[in-house]
């Protein structure tokens, strides 16, 4: 504010700098409209400072937020998602759980004479867990593929023991075990599920335009020229 005062018969102009008290701005933000209203409040404060030529001391400006505590992982429909969208912990947990169930089946199926009963138990209690929503946590690293494969291999070795009275030697061919008991590898089964999902997505069997828009279709055109003579 500029004012004058007489001194020795002369007029002197004096500039007085004003400082505002602390200001606090807060708002509960539940949606985009609330965020826009909060931004408008900041804009209004900034315009007010420009009009009255008051600068904000940014060194004393602070921001604090009150919200629900953040977490590094959540469980949704039985699947563990972490903040890196990596499913290593889920795979380790499901393998450990399936190995425990396999031990339970082996102990209780020791006296079963029909191998189909053991196969049915494995399919119902273990295979269903190993393949549950595999399209989401599809393993791409060999270490996780081998870890999952270990469960099926232990079961196939148990079936071999039931038929032959002894377990196969260490390093025995996995392909031989699969063919002997008419099993496909877990990797092959996951690939079939993934391709089936892709087919249903393209054929509109799965209602998800977001996923469909991520697929790049390449169509090749063949031009056929027919020469005619007149």
TrEMBL record:
Keywords annotated in UniProt: Signal
Keyword Signal: yes
Domain of life: Eukaryota
Signal peptide extent: 1-23
Protein name per Swiss-Prot or TrEMBL: RVT 1 domain containing protein
Species lineage: Eukaryota, Metazoa, Ecdysozoa, Arthropoda, Hexapoda
């Amino acid at each position: 504010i500029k004012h004058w005062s007489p001194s020795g018969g002369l007029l002197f102009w004096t500039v007085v700098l004003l400082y505002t008290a602390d200001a606090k701005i807060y708002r509960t933000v539940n949606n985009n409209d609330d965020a826009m209203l909060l931004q408008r409040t900041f804009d209004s404060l900034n315009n007010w400072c420009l009009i009255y030529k008051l600068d904000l001391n940014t060194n004393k400006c602070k921001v604090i937020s009150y919200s629900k505590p953040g977490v590094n992982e959540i469980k949704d429909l039985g699947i563990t998602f972490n903040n890196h969208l990596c499913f290593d912990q889920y795979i380790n947990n499901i393998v450990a759980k399936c190995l425990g169930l396999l031990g339970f089946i082996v102990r209780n199926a020791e006296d079963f004479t029909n191998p189909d009963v053991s196969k049915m138990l494995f399919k119902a209690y273990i295979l269903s867990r190993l393949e549950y929503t595999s399209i989401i946590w599809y393993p791409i690293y060999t270490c996780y593929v081998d870890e999952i494969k270990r469960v099926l291999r232990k079961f196939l070795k148990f079936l071999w023991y039931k038929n032959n009275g002894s377990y196969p030697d260490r390093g025995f061919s996995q392909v031989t075990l699969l063919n002997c008991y008419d099993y496909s590898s877990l990797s092959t089964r996951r690939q079939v599920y993934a391709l089936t999902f892709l087919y249903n997505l393209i054929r509109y069997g799965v209602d998800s335009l977001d996923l469909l828009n991520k697929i790049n279709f390449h169509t090749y055109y063949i031009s056929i020229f027919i020469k005619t003579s007149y």
